[in-house]
């Protein structure tokens, strides 16, 4: 199969869809890989390394979109990229379609098969391609919150870890999943006072046992969230409904009970955000202030540590890329129910119910779409 890896064009996005090691694996299996020049240079992966691994280094993304059967990316395709996709082509990347009707419309119009990293499943309802970036984002959320709290950045001037004789800062984490657990671990490591809220009692018990009670756990209700906001220095939004828009857990009115100069970090911003006042920002201009509260809502947080993130992500995605390349997209999807759960768009048809519900669109079960060739099915 002919596999293409374009350079990412989203603001301050330096990750890349395959490492030279991944290229070598694919080439050894008999596949041909195109990599756009300078695609990994910013994180120390040179054109020479890709060429030595067996890739064909090409000058433009346009050539990749024109030639490749399988396009492997990191971030959702930007409008200019969506317009270059074509029927009988497969796109494998993060999509986060629920809060993005324009991207959904463009992908449907392309006729391409679009598989989203974030909805591919694993054992025990895990999300193996989202987990590595959730780990990164969860850990980053605390270092970004700590930076935002500095007085020179507009924050309240609180050191999360405190010092002897001065109380530590308080971190409130909304959601006890992968993001929340990693955020809590980092905050605890700094010496902060940490509380996690979640609606799964088994998960809260697990967290309590894992940290031997050093992290406080609370069942999440609107009242509990509002109470915690009153004393929080940093709040981490770490909720996830796979494939769907994130629930709004903190309203604008609730900002009024918070301490001036405290920080909201919305890790759920890719799925629309879990704070009512959230709007996507970039690494170039990461924060804004609403009612005296600093908001950090960078939509590609792991891109800030792009080298670590690239290796973490591609370790997880490579087996699926190999399957798509070896079997072809349709056979790979039919033979792997977990990969099939990643199918969001198939030949002009929406195949992810959570996205359809969020946008009021028609929906076709993935198995039915594959059976009937997508465009032949009336949505």
Structure notes:
The chain is an alpha/beta fold and 379 residues long. The chain has 2 domains: 2-119 and 306-372, Rossmann fold; 131-299, NAD(P)-binding Rossmann-like Domain (Rossmann fold). It has 15 helices and 15 strands. An 8-stranded mixed sheet has the order 3-2-1-4-5-6-14-15, sandwiched between helices. Strand 5, helix 5 (101-110) and strand 6 form a beta-alpha-beta unit. Helix 6 runs parallel beside helix 7 and helix 11 packs across helix 12 (329-335). It is globular, with a radius of gyration of 21 Å. The protein starts with a strand and ends in a 7-residue tail after the last helix. The model has no long low-confidence stretch (mean pLDDT 95).
- Tally of DSSP helical segments: 15
* CATH hierarchy, class of the largest domain: Alpha Beta
**Which architecture of the largest domain would the CATH scheme give at its second level?**
3-Layer(aba) Sandwich
* Helicity, as a percent range: 25-40%
Q: Strands of the largest sheet, in order across it?
A: 3-2-1-4-5-6-14-15
Task: Give a quick account of the main beta sheet: strands, pairing sense, barrel closure.
Answer: 8 strands, mixed
Let me know the CATH homologous superfamily of the largest domain: NAD(P)-binding Rossmann-like Domain
SSE arrangement, N to C: EHEHEHEHEHEHEHEHEHEHEEEHHHEEHH
Mean pLDDT: 95
Distance between the termini: 30 Å
CATH topology of the largest domain: Rossmann fold
Number of strands: 15
Structural class of the secondary elements?
alpha/beta
Number of domains: 2
The quaternary organization reads as single chain
| Tertiary shape | globular
Strand content: 15-25%
* Unreliable residue runs: none
How big is the Rg? 21 Å
């Amino acid at each position: 199969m002919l596999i293409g890896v374009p350079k990412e064009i989203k603001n301050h996005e330096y990750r890349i869809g395959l490492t030279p090691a991944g290229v070598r694996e694919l080439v050894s299996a008999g596949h041909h890989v195109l990599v756009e020049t300078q695609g990994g240079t910013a994180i120390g992966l040179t054109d020479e390394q890709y060429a030595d691994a067996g890739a064909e280094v090409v000058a433009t993304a346009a050539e990749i979109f024109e030639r490749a059967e399988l396009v492997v990316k990191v971030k959702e395709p930007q409008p200019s990229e969506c317009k270059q996709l074509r029927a009988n082509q497969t796109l494998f990347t993060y999509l986060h379609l629920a809060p993005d009707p324009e991207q959904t419309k463009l992908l449907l119009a392309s006729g391409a098969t679009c598989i989203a990293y974030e909805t591919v499943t694993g054992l025990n309802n895990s999300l193996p391609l989202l987990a590595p970036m959730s780990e990164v984002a969860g850990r980053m959320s605390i270092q970004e919150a700590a930076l935002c709290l500095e007085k020179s950045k507009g924050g309240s001037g609180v050191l999360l870890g405190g010092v002897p004789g001065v109380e530590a800062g308080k971190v409130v984490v909304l959601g006890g999943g992968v993001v929340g657990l990693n955020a809590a671990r980092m905050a605890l490591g700094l010496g902060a006072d940490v509380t996690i809220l979640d609606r799964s009692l088994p998960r809260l018990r697990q967290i309590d046992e894992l940290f031997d009670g050093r992290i406080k756990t609370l069942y999440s209700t609107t009242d509990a969230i509002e109470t915690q906001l009153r004393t929080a220095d940093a709040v981490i939004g770490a909720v996830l409904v796979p494939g769907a828009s994130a629930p709004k857990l903190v309203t604008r009115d609730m900002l009024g009970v918070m301490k001036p100069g405290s920080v909201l970090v919305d890790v759920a911003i890719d799925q629309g955000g879990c704070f009512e006042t959230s709007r996507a920002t970039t690494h170039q201009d990461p924060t804004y202030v609403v009612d005296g509260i600093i908001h950090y809502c960078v939509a590609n947080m792991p891109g800030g540590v792009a080298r670590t993130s690239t290796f973490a992500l591609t370790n997880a995605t490579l087996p699926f890329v190999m399957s798509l390349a070896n079997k072809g997209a349709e056979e790979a999807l039919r033979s792997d129910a977990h990969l099939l759960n990643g199918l969001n768009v198939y030949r002009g048809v929406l195949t992810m119910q959570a996205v359809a519900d969020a946008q009021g669109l028609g929906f076709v079960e993935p198995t039915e779409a594959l059976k009937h060739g997508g465009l032949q099915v009336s949505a």
